[in-house]
Amino acid sequence: MEANPSLLDTVGVGDLVLLDPLSEESLLQNLKERFRHQEIYTYIGNVVISVNPYQPLPIYSPQTVEDYRNSNFFAVKPHIYAIADDAYRSLRDRDKDQCILITGESGAGKTEASKQVMSYVAAVCGKGEEVNQVKEQLLQSNPVLEGECPPALKRAPSSPGKYMDVEFDFKGQPLGGVISNYLLEKSRVVRHVKEERNFHIFYQLLAGGSDQLLRGLKLERDCRRYGYLGREDPSLPGVDDAANFRAVQDAMMVIGFSPAEVQALLEVAAVVLKLGNVELGSQFEASGMESCSIQDTRAVREICELIGLPESVLEKALCSRTVEAKREKVVTGLSVAQGCYGRDALAKNIYNRLFNWLVNRINASIKVDTSERRKVMGVLDIYGFEIFQDNSFEQFVINYCNEKLQQIFILMTLKEEQEEYVREGIQWTPVDFFDNSIICSLIEDSKAGILAMLDEECLRPGVVTEETFLAKLNQVCASHKHYESRATQNARHVMDTSLASSCFRVHHYAGKVTYNVTGFVEKNNDLLFRDLSQAMWKARHELLRSLFPEGDPQKASLRRPPTAGSQFKASIATLMKNLYSKNPNYIRWCIKPNDNKEPGVFTDGLVQMQVRYLGLLENVRVRRAGYAYRQGYEPCLERYKMLCKQTWPKWKGDARDGVQALLTDLHIPPAELAYGRSKIFIRTPRTLFDLEDRRRLRMADLASLIQATYRGWRCRTHYQQMRKSQIVISAWFRGQAHRKRFEQMKRSALLIQAWVRGWKSRRLLRELKHQKRCSQAAATIAAYWKGYKVTAAQAPARRPGGTSEPWLPVSLWPRRGEKRVGLARREAGSLHPRLTPGLLTGRLPLQTRKEYKKYFRSGASATLANFIYRRLLQKFFLGLRSNLPPLVVTDRSWPAAPYKFLANTNEELKKIFYAWKCKKYRDRLTPQRKALLQDKLCASELFKDKKTLYPGVGGQPGSFQGEYLGLQKNPKYRALHTAAEGKLVLADTVQKVNRANGKTVPRLFLLTKNHIILADPKAAQPKTVVSLSDIRSVSVTRFSDGFFVLHLNETSTVGTKGDFLLVSDHLIELVTKLHQTLLETTTKTLNLQVADE
């Protein structure tokens, strides 16, 4: 078979159909050679093989997109863009729904391939504001769901299976889409294997969230503080979690998430993280029964603050369980193991439901609103086949899904290929292939399948364990040739130490996989206690509340929810039905070249195993034995009828006869053709290329003919319109010319008139300004002359020589151009010596003072007063700075105010300085000193001026020690120290007074966060345990003794024996610690009674 030159010009052979000789070794060597030269794509007919390079390659540029746009599939180098372009053009031009199946092992590059397919389709489809918005939303759904994590990283978690239906209109422009997800690995939330990470959103939130956001979510940036994230280094080489978090936020904004929705989503994610920090420990109830309790209430308190739930509701749901039987409800306490299971189940369910809500929210944004007919392209990106050292329930259902996809490939490509040739009556050489339907039946059979047996065991009453499930499998599937276990091997007398007694093995199409049944029943049940669902429904957080609708008491149901296996089986059946309804011509494989995911490394053994179980060699043989292209007679005649004069423009006979006449007229060799009952078959791609080239040339000729005819019609029509329009235009033009000339003359006349009026106005303005200046000058001269005459008339003083002179000396006479006000600015010392004393003392005649008042500024008094006031303030503050009291909190002295008007200011400064001095003192206190002062303050509030013993104890610093027994050092008290580990507040020896005879008995007094324990000092065993909530009050005397009485509630189990009369040498400290602990635990103050009796 001859090939297109573009396929032969590449490294090796671009299409394996052209490989010669054909063998497994030559096929493997061809893939290796192409991989070495970074040619990662290879064809098998219209199917492409992709080898993951584990490094960025420059083959996805915009220029590459243009090279593959509207190109012939076999006329360009093998590329994923060729698959995407062929699928898109078939959908747009031939009106056929398409599906692109992306299969392969985990780490083979399936997720990246799906992104490239979507990017190419978005680049080649139509443009426009609405179209671009839809394309951007479809593309941005990947970062949100994938967490912007490169799938080729070694420690990245497996992506969930995803199927996207992209819907187009009749023009091929995207309208929207629908996303379906399959099997989120939610067990990774609570535990993951070493050298792997949890889901990436947790690391991205902690690394990229702002400090304000983390404070609002009550999170810390260090990942090692959260139990679900592990204690190892969470960073990945080449991954910027902070940048990825910003990309996820931007993608959410593009899709249409509101800021409130993003905040609510992050709050629920923070709740999942904090659930891992909820530590459960064992405790003894008053009845002596052991139960679990919250060790540290901080995590629970922060979770409840985030979701708006009372702490008691969540604590009760985590530590107890409600069982309903015969319309009765019984609340039973959970053990530590049961409590941890419920906590982890809650975290997994919250994250799983949050992810499903996220998918539904994206679907709501990208859904199609129009009711017009739509075309659909489906892109399936789903997990590959997995074979680990320890395979569990997740690997079993993943491999089951891959078996179903392999079954599609077998039915749609190999089996359908052979059956179509037989159906069309065409002779060819049959090729044997492996049909994996027997393996699918082993897993999914409704009666004897493994999933059916697992569901039956989960629903069976009585004790159900993994051992009973395995025994049932050995009984039902013992004769199946693809099932194997230790029991079946023993029956066949086969010794295989690699198969443990708790495992079974399935012979998949990809190889033998050993599954450990441990955890199968638990993961298939996937139970969540009803108390936890109801607690989540009671939260005031709208998003979290919507995730648990079954928690509504009005909608409560006692029906058992479907198992995880049955749900996954139903979703896979729906997926298969969807894929069968579309054109499956675009199936592609992804191959993993090495296990370490290193660039440039090609492991022959690993690739050879994938080549075998993917059936590549059988597919090549089918393609070589058959025909490369086939099409129905009617579409073929419709597409190529313009190549023959007999069939153009319309063929009136049978479609088969028309195709035969067409191909005969084109002189195509008969060996290249085969006429089936309903289709024409073409053997080699070269013949198809030749037909396409002839059609392209003929379409160009027809287009030229249509263009010439159209241009002629358009020119004739245009000439007639121009001839009719010329007469109208001439008439209008002459009229317009005259009107334009008139308007121009009118504008000129108006302009001349405007200039003349402006010249007259400016001349008049100059004359008016001159008259005004003359009037102002005359008024000024007259004013100065009148002032001089008045001054001369009022001055009877004469010169020493007998000549008369005015009151004002010449130096104070108004100068030329000086206003009267300026006279006041001269200094008073420049006045005449005879006038100076009278002017300064104010003893001049009244008329003279009034006359001279106009020569001084009117605001002089206010200016002087302000100057004096500012000078006094400056003096006050400078003096205060050098006279500050010492920085001692007990010294409350303060300088007195020097002026009465500063009294209020001085008092405020005193308060501010004392408050600042106290703050500086508090900042210097150590935590231990601060705690000691708090204890002293509490003791003072309780006993000051009430008990005589207080001044001798409460006033001594450092007198409160808390632990007087040495529980850690004394091995005798080890049991008591273990019982109070992490909760001990005070330990002391007290004397218990017998109320009957007044005798005292020594007892060990232990105060914890929740109880008071009275123990025997000899046996070191608890004698009495009193809950803090059972203490009604405490009574002490006002004297210097250590007597105190514990008054208990009558409803408590210990209260029936009466109150306790005790004597302690550290009474003040004991009652103070009891008051603080009771306030912290129950938020109630201690009822302390001080009396004489």
TrEMBL record:
Q: Name one GO biological process term.
A: microvillus assembly
* GO MF, one annotated term: calmodulin binding
Q: Where does ATP bind?
A: G104, E105, S106, G107, A108, G109, K110, T111
Q: Does the keyword Nucleotide-binding apply?
A: yes
Q: Which UniProt keywords apply?
A: Actin-binding, ATP-binding, Calmodulin-binding, Motor protein, Myosin, Nucleotide-binding, Repeat
Its domain of life reads Eukaryota
Q: Name one GO cellular component term.
A: lateral plasma membrane
The UniProt record lists the TH1 domain at 947-1093
Q: Where is the Myosin motor domain?
A: 11-696
Xref: Pfam families: IQ, Myosin_head, Myosin_TH1
Q: Per the similarity annotation, which family is this?
A: Belongs to the TRAFAC class myosin-kinesin ATPase superfamily. Myosin family.
Entry protein name: Unconventional myosin-Ia
Source organism phylogeny:
Eukaryota, Metazoa, Chordata, Craniata, Vertebrata
